[in-house]
Amino acid sequence: MSRNKKLVPQAKSALDKFKMEAANEVGVNLTQGYNGDLTSKQAGSVGGQMVKKMIQSYEQNMANGSSN
Known about the structure:
single chain; mainly alpha; 2 helices; globular
C-alpha cells in the first residue's frame, strides 16, 4: 500500500518544478525521471530546502494577513 499518494494529483508538475528549483539552489543535479543515484545527503538537502521555502512562504503569508 503506497502512502505517497498526492492529495492534489493536478499539482504534480508544479511540485516537480519546485523540487528542481530547490535542487538547483543547493547545487544538486537532478534529472527528469530516475534520481536513485543521489546520496542521502544530497536528497536530504533538496528536501530540507523545499521545507525551508515552504515555511518561508507560510510565514510571509501570515505576516501579510493571509490565511492561505
